[in-house]
Design brief:
It is built from three helices and nine strands, in the order ββαββββαβαββ. The protein is of the alpha/beta class. It has two domains: 2-38, no CATH class; 49-132, 2-Layer Sandwich (Nucleotidyltransferase, domain 5). The longest helix is centred in the first third of the chain and has 17 residues, at 19-35.
Length: 135
């Protein structure tokens, strides 16, 4: 410590200005809030509602059927006849999980055709995506 001529101590300025840190954190929060809805699957469908719904935390292959009966793997449009080739027909795919999302207005015949194409790819573990019933 250094003493001044009057007998008082001079201390170093040790305060940290956190205003820029708060500004950066708020900007990052805003960016994540705006981009989070965009990160979800890009094909918009109104999936049916059920009482039991399991929440998923892992990334899996999603096959989507929109209300015009267009088929998508992840977000890429695919012809239904090419679906088995896109998903792959290797025997190792038997343990792979594929999720099928279909708009509630899609006829059962179109849904069954997609399910059959997934099975032709050698994938037998198929789950159907639904939403919980709003109370």
């Amino acid at each position: 410590m250094a003493f001044s001529s009057r007998g008082h101590t001079n201390t170093a300025l040790a305060d940290i200005n956190i205003t820029p840190l708060v500004d950066v954190v708020l900007v990052l929060l805003l960016i994540f809030m705006v981009t989070a809805p965009v990160l979800q699957s890009g094909v918009e469908v109104a999936v049916p509602q059920t009482r039991t719904v399991n929440q998923l935390t892992e990334e899996h292959t999603v096959v989507t059927i929109d209300k015009e009966q267009n088929v998508f793997v992840q977000d890429k449009p695919v012809n239904i006849h090419d679906l088995p080739g896109v998903l792959g027909s290797a025997p190792a795919n038997a343990k792979r999980v594929v999720y099928v999302r279909a708009d509630q207005k899609v006829p059962f015949g179109a849904f069954a055709s997609v399910m059959d194409a997934v099975k032709q790819a050698g994938i037998s573990n198929i789950s159907i995506v639904t939403q919980p019933i709003q109370r």
